[in-house]
Amino acid sequence: MVGAMTFRRAALEIIALSLLVGAFACDGSGGLATLPTRLAAARCAGYSHCWDNNQPTYQTLWCEDSHRHWARNLVYQWTLGAEKGTLVLDDALMELCLDRLAAGHVCRTEGPEKFMRDDPACQAAVRGLVDDGGPCLHHSECGVGSYCGEEPTCGGTCTPYAGETDYCSWPTTLCEADLVCPLLGNSCIRPRDEGEACSYPGMPCRPDLRCYGADADAGIDGACGPKNGSANVGDPCERASDCVDGLVCGETDDLGGGSVCLTRVGPGEPCFRSMPQSCAGGHYCVIDDGSAWGMCEPLLDDTEPCGVDVFNACRPGSHCTRIDLAIATSDSFCRPLRLLGESCMFNGTPCAQGTCLDLTVSEGTCELECM
């Protein structure tokens, strides 16, 4: 409970400060207009401090592009909450929050906005006004030390964070900021510190550490230690955090010879089928003949043809969609995913979040179903 009390005290102090610095700038000249871009940039910068870059979501050099539509949806929800009076946005504290996200102070992974609840500055920047037990659509509407629990398609109830040893169910339960709900287990636990025994997914290390020597199949625990990051090109590795910045960890052939640190390859250079992340940011590995090797090519821009069965060729935030879904042989093109509040088509590009509602013939609007 000491950690929870400290967090609440810090958050309340920052909220008191927010009453002095004023509300969020909403005139479109900055503030909300640029917030999605700045939020995506801060989140991606923080990944390098929090996670191994072999993880697909975090490894890409075009991370900001892939996160920008998510950030736009999140800011859209905040704007609706501010209009309804369920939350207050604060410009000055948002800048502090973004700085802390970029520095890796906040490393939670459960869901697209839950990381905003782990830092007093971030929680005060988007200050929820709904009391515990009250209805909510997203976490930011709830007060200090609470989150929007039981999220189906949308909607829930503001619920206090679970404390250490309290019941949790990943990923729907939020534990207190310094605790985690492991994939295996049903209670909030403290992540293991350096030198402590660890295993995955039952006893995870702190985000800035990794678990060495664990063998889940043999029931052998490992030990938490710093991410090395010292292996150079050609050196053996287990994951990208073993390599120096900018390298990836992967196989050089399909003969099972083990993984080594590799440089990302540029456009027109050969890439290995099992290592799509070996292509430089903004590119993907094109394999046409079913072989183990392909060629790195630029991701496709909107309106470019992408092929019926290709789903990873379009740039982040876009989707490969057939012109006519009723015709299997119809040509496919990259189209931007539609965001909350934007128009959508029943037989066109899907919504990035929510559902295409209020359809009139074929067009509608991307909305959360209970909004």
If you had to describe this structure to a student in words, what would you say it looks like?
The chain has 371 residues and is an alpha+beta fold. It has four domains: 2-152, no CATH class; 197-226, no CATH class; 240-298, no CATH class; 318-367, no CATH class. It has six helices and 18 strands. The chain has helices spanning 2-21, 35-50, 56-59, 63-84, 91-102, 120-125, and strands at residues 87-89, 126-128, 135-136, 146-149, 156-160, 197-198, 209-212, 222-226, 247-251, 259-263, 270-272, 283-286, 293-298, 318-322, 332-336, 343-345, 355-360, 363-367. Strands 3-5-4 form a three-stranded antiparallel beta sheet, with no helix packed on it. It has a three-stranded antiparallel beta sheet with strand order 6-8-7, with no helix packed on it. Helix 2 packs across helix 4 and helix 2 (35-50) runs parallel beside helix 5. The radius of gyration is 22 Å and the shape is globular.
Topology at a glance:
Elements: H1 2-21, H2 35-50, H3 56-59, H4 63-84, E1 87-89, H5 91-102, H6 120-125, E2 126-128, E3 135-136, E4 146-149, E5 156-160, E6 197-198, E7 209-212, E8 222-226, E9 247-251, E10 259-263, E11 270-272, E12 283-286, E13 293-298, E14 318-322, E15 332-336, E16 343-345, E17 355-360, E18 363-367
Antiparallel strand pairs: 1-2, 3-5, 4-5, 6-8, 7-8, 9-10, 11-13, 12-13, 14-15, 16-18, 17-18
